[in-house]
Every structure is written in C-alpha cells, then in structure tokens.
What we know:
The complex is a heterodimer.
Chain A: H1 2-35, H2 45-54, H3 65-85, H4 100-121, H5 124-155, H6 160-163, H7 174-190, H8 202-205, H9 215-240, H10 249-272, H11 279-301
Helix pairs in contact in A: 1-3, 1-9, 1-10, 2-9, 3-4, 3-9, 4-5, 5-7, 5-11, 7-9, 7-11, 9-10
Chain B: H1 3-14, E1 18-25, E2 28-33, H2 38-48, E3 52-61, H3 62-65, E4 67-76, E5 81-90, E6 95-97, H4 107-116, E7 120-122, E8 172-176, E9 188-194, E10 197-204, H5 212-218, H6 225-229, H7 237-252, H8 258-286, H9 290-311, E11 320-321, E12 324-325, H10 331-357, H11 359-365, H12 373-379, H13 383-388, H14 395-398, H15 419-443, E13 462-469, E14 472-479, E15 488-492, H16 494-506, E16 509-510, H17 511-520, H18 525-528, H19 546-560
Parallel strand pairs in B: 2-5, 6-7
Antiparallel strand pairs in B: 1-2, 3-4, 4-5, 8-9, 9-10, 10-16, 11-12, 13-14, 14-15
Helix pairs in contact in B: 7-8, 8-9, 8-15, 8-17, 9-10, 10-15, 16-17
Amino acid sequence: MNMLHMIVGGLTNVLMVLIAAPFAQGIVRKLTARIQSRQGPPLLQPYFDLLKLLGKEDIESGEIPAMQRFAAYLSFTAILAVACFVPVGFASPMNASGDVILLIYLLTLCGICTLLAGLAAGSPYSLVGISREMMSMIALEPLFAIALVVGAVHAGSLRLDRILNGSPYGGVGLSGIIMLGVISFSFQAFVQRTPFDIAEAETELMEGPLMEYSGPKLALLKYAQMIKLIVYSALFVALFTPWGSGLMFPFGWLLFWVKVLLLVLLVTVVAATHARYRIDQAVRFFASLAGVAVVALILASYGY
Amino acid sequence: MIAREMFEQFKQRFGPLIERADLPSDQRIFVFVEPSSVRHVTRHIFRELDARYVATIGADDRPYSGKFLVAHNFAFDREHLLCSLLSYLPADNPRIDSITDMVPAASWAEREMRDLVGIEPVGHRYLKRLVLPDGWPEGNHPLRKDVPWNEVPETFDDTREFKFDDPPEGCTVVPFGPFHPTLDEPAHFRLYVEGEMVRGCEYRGFMVHRGIEKLSESVMSYNDIPMLAERICGICGCVHNVAYVQSVEEAAGLKPPPAAEYIRTIMLEMERLHSHLLWVGLACHIVGFETLFMQSFRIREPIMWMAEKISGNRKTYALCVIGGVRWNITAEIKLELRNVLDKLESEWQAVVAAVSRDKNIQKRTRGVGVANPLLVKSVGLLGPVARAAGVEIDCRHDHPYAAYDRVEFDVITEQGGDVWARLMVRMKEVFESIRIIRQCLEKMEPGPLQLEIKDELPIGRIGLSSVEAPRGESHHFVITGENNRPRRWRVRAPTYQNLQGVPAMIKDQQIADMTISLGSIDPCFSCTDRLETIDPRSGSVKVWTQDELLKLTRTKKEARR
Lengths: 304, 561
C-alpha cells in the first residue's frame, strides 16, 4: 500500500511538473515580451516548440555522440527525479525513500549534465562554456546545500518532510532569514536566467555547451531547463514560504502554485531588466553569498 | 591657418624637395615630392606638426603619366586643412619607403596598396596578405589598369589556405568568426586565449569584397557611382554617397545649391540617428540586456519610416547626383519630421536617464576595451572611439561640408576611452543630431536642387572629402578621368582604422569582454571589405577545403532524393 502510494505520488509530481513547466516558460516569454514592448508568442508556444523539436531528425554530432545523448537523457531524468522528492502542491511523496543528502546529490547531478554536454560537443566555445559552468557550480551549489543543512540542523533530522517545511527558520529564525536573502539573491543563477546565464551566453559563446545539440536531444535539454525553473521554485517555496501547505486539498495546492507563479514572474522581471554579468563578477558575487551562508550555518548550529 | 601659410612653411623647410604643389582652396593642399623624401616630410607633418593620419592611396597612373602614384593623406583638424602628400614612382619598379614605423596607422593601407596595386612598401614589418583572397596568385594586382575588371586569373588556386601565425606559447586558439552571432558580417578573429584571458589575436577579414572601386573606374559613370557607393554599407550608405559626390564636386570645382546642401545634411543626420539607436540596441544585446535592445529598436523605427517617406526607401536613400540632390523635402514632410524628432527626443531622454543610472551596465562596460589618446593618435582611431578618449575630432566641425558650417552643434567628448564612454558619446550625439536637423529645417529655403552641368568634368584633378559617418570619418579620394568616370576612387571607411585598434583594446581582457569591445567600435565590415571579388574560405581550426565541403553538401543532397 505504502509502495503504491509512493509510486502514484511520484508519478503525479512528475506529471504536474511536466505539464506546468512549458506553461511557466510561456508566461516568462509573454511577460518578457510585454516589458520589451513586443506582442510576444502565445502562452502555449513552448509546448509547440518542444513538440516541433521532438519531431525533428535525431542527428549525431559533436566529438562524442554517445555521451551527448547520455547527457541529454540524464539531465532530463535527474531533474524529474528531483521533482519526485519535492512537494509540488502535495506533501513530498518519496519522503521515506530518500533524505536531504540524496536531494543535494541530485541537484548537483543536474549541473554535471551541462558539463557532460559541453565535453561531448568538444568545440572551443563549449569548453569555455563548461569551464564557466564549473566555476559557477563550485561557488553556487553549496548555497542551496547550506540552506538544506541549516534546515536539517534546526529540524534535527534529515527527513525530507521535516526539512522542506520552513525548517531553516527553526525556533528563532535568524539563520533562516539570512538564508532566505542568500537564496533570493542567487535564485536567478540556479534557474540559469539573465544576469547569470553566463555558461550559455549566446552573444559570447553561441549557447556554449548546448551548441552541438539539435532535435529531440535539444528538446530534452530545453525541457529540463524549464522544469528546473519550476522545481527550484518549488524548493524555494517549501523551504522558505511553506505556509498554507497543510490546507485542505484544492486550497493548499492552489496556494502553492500561486506562490510558484509569483516567483516565476519575479525571475522574469529581473531577467528582463539586467545585463549579463561576466564570470569573474558572478563568481565573486556567489563567493560573498557563500561567506554569508556559512555564517548562517554557524548561527544555526548554535540554535539561532 | 590657411593652406597658403602652411605651404610657405613647407617651402621654407623643405625647399628643393618639393617638386610641385597645388592649393585649390584654403582647406586643401597637395604637395608632390620625390619618393625618397616622403619619409622625411611625413615625419615633419605627423610628428612635429601633429597632423592626423587619414589614408594612403596607391594608384596606377601609367596610362596617363607613365608612373605609379602614391598619396599619403593627413588632416590638420584644428586648422581645418586636409593635406595630401603625393609622389610618382617609376613604372618598372614601384617601391616606396614605408612610413609605418612612424605612423602605425598606415599599416593596413600599405598592405592593401601592395595587394591591389603592387606598390611595394619597403620596410613594412608585417607584409602579410590583407585584401586579396587566399587563392589569388602572387604578382597579379587587380587594381592595375591592365587587369580587366571581370578577370579571374587562370592560376587562381582554390586549395591554397591562409597561413595564420603561430599562437604564443601557453595559449589556445579560440576562433571568433567568420560567422558568430554578434558579428553581423563575416570577419575572422583568431583569439589567443589563456584560460578566460585574451592575450592577442590575428585578424583575417576582407571576405566579402565586391570590387566596387575597380567597377567604378572601368565600367560605371560619374552619376552611376553614387548608387553603387551607398551600397558599400548596410547602415551608413548615405555617407559614402555624399562623400563620393563631394569629392568629385571638389575636383571639378562645383558648388551645389544651398537647398541641396541642407537636404544632404538632414539625411546624413537622420542616418546618424538610426545608426546610433541601432548601435545602442546591439551593444545592449551583446551584454545580454535584451529589453533595452528591443526598446531602442522601437524608438528607432519612426526614423526609418520617415526616411522611407522622404526617399522611398528605409535605408538606401539614392540621395545625391554630381552637383545636387535628387529629391526635395516638402513642407508637409518637414512638419511630420519635426513631430517624429520631438517624440524621439523625449523617448530617448528616458532611455539615457535609465542607462546612465544603471549600475549593471556600467559593471560590464567601465574599464573595458580601453583606447587611450596615445592609441588614438598612433592607430588613427576615429569618431566616437576617439571622442570617448577625449580627442576632439569631428569632421562636421573640423572640415565642414554640406551645410554644417551654418548650423550650431557641440562635439561630444568623454574621458576614459572605455566602452562606457563610447556608449555615453553615442547616446548624447543623438540629441545633437536632432538639434542639427531642426536648425536645417528652420534655415532651409526653397531653391534649385541641382546644378546645371553643361561641360564635361575636367580631367586629372584630385578631390578629397571627409564626411563624419556615425562610426567616424569616411574619407574619399577621387582622381577625375576620361570617359565620364573617375580614374581612381578610393574609399577609406572609419572601421578600416578602428579595426586596427581592436587587438590593442582586447589584449589582456576576458573573452566575455571581447564581443562588447569589438562591438563598441560599431564595426562595419562591408565598408572595410569594399574591394575585389571572389570569396575566400574561412580558416577555422578544423579546416575543410572548399572541395570537401562541396562534395559533402552534394552527397547529402543526393541521399535525400
């Protein structure tokens, strides 16, 4: 019974994310267009784009085609795996089969896929792209990990349902508020939007690691990127603004998606009003955030 | 200082070295010297008199004087004087001492002269092929008069490849171009990169030569050429159109009627408006700020509509003929243009206010791609690039043409010489252009639009014209000739000089800054590449020969059938 519950719950999560992600992307594109005095594509355009890409010829290219294919599949599945562990309107379904450490690993795996993709392409541009990706990963990934660990320290447990429930605030909430600031400032980078879309920077690196991709494999990578926006938003909501998640079915669920939508809108506005940072500027920014995050971790371990 | 005083100075100093001199007006001076004393005189002009280097022109003059002709053009900007230093070279052995050790700015021009006319600059340190395609045989110089305009030499070798220099030790090569999203036109920079830092680069351009100069002196006639000239560039075509016509007019001693001069001024400024707005948009696109890119294109669009209403075209205005212009600006268009300008001014003020407060853009542009006044002088940088370094040069002010002597405007300068300063210069120049157009509309009076030219234009006269294009000075050099066409027409677009400064600007910077540094000179490759035909292949790291590529495309096509 419990097993069945887990599988159904996981599948429901995956399905919801799969459906919602292109729609969120549609909202991003529409809002961006309105800010730029453009008409913008219809809200459903990302679905059509994905379908179009999926229907194209599957071309083998780059230095190591097998690895290229693997990287595309892996990035798609890794982010969907994350989706199974994150509450998306309902409580986290796979609560019992994994803990926070698994979640941190899975999040890192998503970044590693970009590296694999870039390596497989093997062009100078993609290599520069992955060197940037690596630099920002090293500085960036610890931030979410620290946020989760702060939550774990306060909750006194590694269980997902106890941590993904506003736990970073603990009793006093000081470290939680600091982490809220840190993650808010770096959120744009986690979902790879301007001003931190440095690894792909079209005008510098011609999409960097993605440059050799086309057709269905590109569709998977693009899809993974859209899902990333939803999943990270869900993580953010669960960690920092879980209020109302306990409400009765349609209300709690609706409230959650409204919060995610607000985050998506915020991400869009920030992306549309900023220029891209250079990698050294970005890394310096992440490093200073990491310093602040470590302070929050120390505070948390003393109970603040 | 007028031309006569300058010439007296020359005569006192160089006396017997000067063979002949022409002073057609107070603003022009043509000095003919022995080839052996060119370096001597150049040193005096460039170093002691602090002139600005403009261009070097080689011409095949054998059918007329039995000799080759070389002209080094200099500008005395404060004195409002253009000076040309000419010398004749023997037909059997055209060699001239290179001036590049004193004037590094002449490097490309001398290489081009060697490629196209076959005049050997003796002492030039880097005599690599510049203009001709890779497969073009040595010893065939297409701008010589005995080479037909439509000839492809039999010895043209498709398989020959361009030899790039070896990268410095410890550096990897990142090819930038020939095709790249931020390059609107093909050009190839081989970047030598250490990690994320650019340590140097080699440039290979001239991939879209169209043989425009050769066509002009062999096939077309005086009044056809303006239409060809404005097709040199996709953005600042009107500049070439006007500059060519002005140089022919100057050579022939014609003065167009005042109404025509005002119309020329108005169209040149409209072109500057749309070019600067386009550039600000592209610069924002390069640093990833798409919103401002879209907004400046929206603000720019009414200018394009206005141009279409006036000339029938958004971009190629077909404005000039020798001695005047082809169409009028009517009273209703004046009114509409005023309204467009008012709207543009208020919208642009909002953009400038937003950008100048934006910390984010400053972070990406301050201290990036710096060109100091020293580099400006030695490489001959022009236009907004020079003005952003605090060097106050602007042909509209220094060498007034059309109606610029009758309008008031400020020459915008900034300090710093970085991309940010160039951004500010261009943004503020938009307001000056609006001011100029308004004054022209005010002062313009109805009158004839063209001169009546009854006689043939005189033969063998030289005309110079410097027009301030949106990117800097566009310099045209014309020798009038027989058969209703010029003997030689040389175009020196501003990007020709500005590109030579790019290697110094991007050295020891991050790759991420390369695109905006290059973008900040507003490069215009079609202007630079205006010569000769035949498309050469790219020299990317993994080299396909042309044959292989052709075979590949053909087999794919076969397979599809």
